[in-house]
DNA sequence: CGACGTGTTGAGTGTGATCAACATCTGTGG
DNA sequence: CCACAGATGTTGATCACACTCAACACGTCG
């Protein structure tokens, strides 16, 4: 399942970017916008299940998510999988590989995923001419690190129920900040296998743990999807205060 | 235990930095060196047990480790602690807090720790005038993310024995790349409580797990310290290939 | 139709947690 | 100098959370 049909044109030139107007994102200087517009060389739309970036590869591109869900993960040689984080619109993917040369993780689409495509070899031009954008890139990397810190705390020190509650509250909040389910049903398009591989649990125990959250009316489970009904309950169970949401840059 | 006696002078001006000559670190342009030298406002030496940066605070400084060991961690309100990563010479700490405003984790010294002190509010000058250094900062943030990814895989998907083997091999390799125990005994200055809080295990089970590694002659445990005897054995147990060590920047 | 992905539930097992007791060693105050 | 508290490491006994195995229901898709 690797339908990588690159739709070449730009349906969404940066000047009419559907994300930028959201007040989650910081304002942009006109010259910055002009640069990004040139930096962006195209768009890419992929189906659910497509692997966008592969661990061990040397990608010539980086991407910003325009719409849809995805996840970053690592595999062990015997097949064990750990999901590291999820990506939602506005997130930059492939920066790590662009800087250090080789991807250390893979990225897969959870839903139809629209991506803005950037050329890796133009990255240094950005650093040379646009210190504000360079700062933004570091900012995005630092924020990814913050999310990973919290995930690590979760997997290392929270119980199964706390972990599940944390994860679903986390994904729910991230979806809301980028209006991911503004239109239509408010569901997170994951399977219980994804939850298990994120939390470091077996799929059977994940199922039983999610059932407890369902019985408390905190969530609802649909076919390959989760709907958060009571975010406050999840935050309480997890002992988590939520994303201290700050305005963030958008590449 | 908060002996924060700031030794003001510069014992080690950047021009005679004891770390930079190591070939782990990338070469520097003269103008970059000059900038860093001005950017560095002093040195700070703290004792073992000192908390260098506190979660929730707004630090005006960032630091580069000149010598010694430390660790980054998060606490939950009921006292559970998760160690996120360790810091060794050459590592930059406090960047996250400098960018996003508030520290989301704490940093504590594992041994006597010597730090170079930088002023946060000069950070943007760096971005404006030194794109190479700006690139380096993002590079360092991306590398921290890579280490966290691997730690998360470990805690989420490796068994207790595999986790312990991974951690000690990891710390051993990091120590070697910066010649941390070039002089004197080659020990990692941690307690079993630190290991437990890194791996997400109880201290009792950590003790029993480390005993297995000791019985296999892979490590030796001293008072508040670990000595790696058979790195290959640890790598084998963990199913880990080691740090693909690349030359890295030094601030 | 059968194969496959996904979700569900029960039974038995085991890894790792908790509880408890003890051995050292250090530092501190009397 | 000793008594004591606290940090660290060790080991055994018991418990429970989470894993494995197994079977089944349901949908989609070739």
Describe this structure in words.
The structure is a homodimer of 251-residue chains. By secondary structure, chain A is α+β, with helices and mostly antiparallel strands. Chain A has 2 domains: 14-131, Jelly Rolls (Sandwich), CATH 2.60.120.10; 149-238, Winged helix-like DNA-binding domain superfamily/Winged helix DNA-binding domain (Arc Repressor Mutant, subunit A, Orthogonal Bundle). Chain A has helices at 30-39, 95-100, 123-129, 131-157, 160-177, 192-199, 203-215, 231-238, and strands spanning 40-46, 51-53, 61-67, 70-75, 81-87, 92-93, 106-109, 113-119, 219-222, 225-228. In chain A, the strands form 3 sheets. The first copy, chain A, has a 4-stranded antiparallel β-sheet with strand order 1-8-3-6. In chain A, helix 5 packs across helix 7. The two termini of chain A are 29 Å apart. The interface between A and B is large, with 49 and 49 residues. The first copy, chain A, binds a DNA duplex (30 and 30 nucleotides) through residues 159-160, 191-193, 201-205, 207-209, 211, 221, 223-224.
CATH architecture of the largest domain in chain A: Sandwich
Output the number of helix runs of chain A.
Answer: 8
Which strand-content bin applies to the residues of chain A? 15-25%
The largest inter-chain interface, given as chain pair and residues per side, is: A-B, 49 and 49 residues
Low-confidence spans of chain A = 1-7
Helix content of chain A: 25-40%
Q: Please, what is the CATH homologous superfamily of the largest domain in chain A?
A: Jelly Rolls
- CATH fold group of the largest domain in chain A: Jelly Rolls
The beta-strand count of chain A equals: 10
The protein's oligomeric status is: homodimer
Strand order of the largest sheet of chain A: 1-8-3-6
Mean pLDDT of chain A: 93
Under CATH at level 1, the class of the largest domain in chain A stands as Mainly Beta
Distance linking N and C termini of chain A: 29 Å
Number of domains of chain A: 2
Going by helix content, strand content and strand pairing, the class of chain A is alpha+beta
Sheet with the most strands, sense and barrel status of chain A: 4 strands, antiparallel
CA gyration radius of chain A, whole angstroms:
18 Å
Write down the overall geometry of chain A. globular
């Amino acid at each position: 399942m690797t339908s990588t049909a690159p739709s070449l044109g730009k349906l969404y030139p940066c000047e009419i970017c559907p994300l930028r107007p959201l007040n989650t994102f910081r304002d942009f200087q006109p010259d910055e916008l002009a640069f990004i517009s040139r930096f962006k060389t195209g768009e890419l739309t992929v189906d659910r299940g497509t692997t966008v970036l592969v661990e061990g590869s040397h990608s010539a591109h980086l991407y910003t998510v325009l719409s849809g869900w995805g996840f970053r993960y690592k595999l062990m040689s015997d097949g064990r999988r750990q999901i590291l984080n999820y990506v939602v619109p506005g997130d930059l993917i492939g920066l790590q590989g662009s800087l250090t040369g080789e991807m250390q993780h893979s990225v897969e689409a959870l839903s139809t995923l629209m991506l803005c495509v950037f050329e890796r070899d133009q990255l240094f031009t950005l650093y040379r001419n646009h210190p504000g954008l360079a700062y933004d890139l570091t900012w995005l990397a630092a924020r990814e690190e913050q999310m990973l810190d919290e995930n690590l705390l979760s997997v290392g020190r929270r119980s199964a129920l706390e972990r599940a509650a944390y994860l679903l509250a986390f994904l729910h909040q991230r979806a809301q900040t980028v209006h991911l389910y503004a239109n239509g049903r408010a569901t997170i398009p994951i399977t219980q296998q994804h939850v298990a591989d994120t939390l470091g649990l077996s799929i059977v125990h994940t199922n039983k743990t999610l059932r407890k959250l369902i019985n408390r009316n905190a969530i609802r489970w649909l076919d390959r999807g989760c709907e958060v009904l009571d975010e406050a309950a999840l935050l309480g169970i997890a002992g988590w205060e939520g994303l201290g949401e700050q305005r963030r840059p958008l590449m």
